[in-house]
Amino acid sequence: MPAPSDDPCGTAESRARLSAGSGNLCAVTNDKNEPIEAVLFDWGGTLAPWHTIDLLGVWRSVATVIDRDRADELAAALLAAEDEVWIRSRDEHRSGTLEEVCAMAEVVMTPEALVEYERLWHPHTELDPEAPATLEGLRARGLRIGVLSNTIWSRQRHESIFARDGILELLDGAVYSSEIAWTKPHEEAFLAAMRAAGASDPARCVFVGDRLFDDVWGAQNVGMRAVHIPHSAITASQLGHTEGVPDATVHNLSDLLDVVDGWMKES
Ligand SMILES: [Mg+2]
Q: What is the DSSP letter of 98?
């Protein structure tokens, strides 16, 4: 497994050892002096509120469209394959795709089944009602906006969701892990998102997410500030690690504007 940082811990005073259970995991502490130029967002649980989803139920409905007589068998295989991809993401920070999940499960996704899959996911993809105004507020402050999502879905799928919800044109760039080799908290994922948003210095980026390790720790590990939105019911097995001490915590997306304003005054 690649270490999240090539130089975990090190000796520089700017690095902070994190809490118990972290082993040798450390985070680069942002010096807080750089002016902010970009705000990057996680998607699930951040721009879109967290929902607990019956994944087996989703896969059973999809499998019923593919082969009604083998629906339970196919659904179990699809769920096991998806679990394997997410465990790999959690433990090795390597990405996967929906196509890979189907191949691992030895299931051929038909167009009709994909429609069913997307229909069942639809209510769980809807945007936080505060997101558009928050993104517009950041834009009005002259900041660039990006997205970095750990996802098995395609860019096309995510962009269609953002277009549906009216924020696609507010994004300067996005990285979906399905199209790169890594998932958060791997540093290459964060740096790719930064570049996609048109920014060039992690110290001038803020990352906003709902996971303390993947989002907060990962962002700080490359030198970004990190804001935590602590409302997602993420299971311990999904988390893997619990490290991550955010630079700020917000309970509503719109509260992010005050946080950013405070940091802009400091710089
Ligand atoms: Mg999330």
A: H
Q: How far from chain centre, in Å, is Cα 4?
A: 16
**Separation of CA 155 and ligand 1 centre (Å):** 16
**What span, in angstroms and rounded, lies between the C-alpha atoms of 85 and 101?**
7
Distance of CA 45 from the midpoint of ligand 1 (Å): 4
- At 70, list the tokens: 């083998």
Gap from CA of 50 to ligand 1 centroid (Å): 8
pTM of the complete model: 0.86
Cα of 196 vs centre of ligand 1, distance in Å, is: 19
Distance in Å, CA 70 to ligand 1 centroid: 33
147: part of which helix (H) or strand (E)? Answer: strand 144-149
C-alpha 157 to ligand 1 mean position (Å): 17
Query: How many Å lie between the centroid of ligand 1 and the Cα of residue 18?
Result: 21
Distances from the Cα of 5 to the Cαs of 133, 162, 185, 221, in angstroms?
35, 31, 10, 7
| Closest by CA position to 190, among listed 19, 10, 23, 30 | 30
Query: Closest Cα partner for 93 from 25, 21, 41?
Result: 25
Name residues whose C-beta falls within 8 Å of residue 153's C-beta, 6 or more positions apart in sequence.
98, 176, 178
> What does the pLDDT read at residue 266?
75
What is the Å distance from ligand 1's center to 185 Cα? 12
Q: Give the model confidence (pLDDT) of 16-65 as tens digits.
A: 323 323 333 444 455 567 899 999 999 999 999 988 889 999 999 999 99
Q: How far, in Å, from the CA of 227 to the mean position of ligand 1?
A: 12
Neighbours of 213 (CB within 10 A): 23
Please state, in angstroms and rounded to a whole number, the distance separating the CA atoms of residues 267 and 143. Answer: 14
